[in-house]
Amino acid sequence: MEIEVVAKALKELGHVTRLKIFKSVVRAGKQGIAVGIVQTELSIPGSTLSHHISSLIAAGLISQRREGRTLYCVADYEQLNAVIGFMLDECCVDETTA
């Protein structure tokens, strides 16, 4: 995974509101969560929520799907695992044994 992609994902998750949104979406599982439920849970205006969701989509962390009149946010678990894996792959690589 390219470092720029990881940096973008971590930057977007570095904002408290976006991290709360992403946590709600991840907790919902593979079926996702309705945008209206996220808005109610976090008590934020729809326009603010939309702005933050757009940032998370741009970072590849979530996607959206529509079912009738309901818009769902779904976590991209592959992207999440890739970001976490990028960091874990570097764990202790420069450590020397004494």
From TrEMBL:
Name of the molecule in the record: Transcriptional regulator
Taxonomy, superkingdom: Bacteria
Keyword annotations from UniProtKB, A to Z: DNA-binding, Transcription, Transcription regulation
Family matches, as InterPro entries: ArsR-like_HTH, HTH_ArsR_DNA-bd_dom, Metal_resp_trans_reg, WH-like_DNA-bd_sf, WH_DNA-bd_sf
HTH arsR-type domain location: 1-95
Organism name: Psychromonas marina
CDD domains hit by this protein: HTH_ARSR (cd00090)
SUPFAM superfamilies xref list: Winged helix' DNA-binding domain (SSF46785)
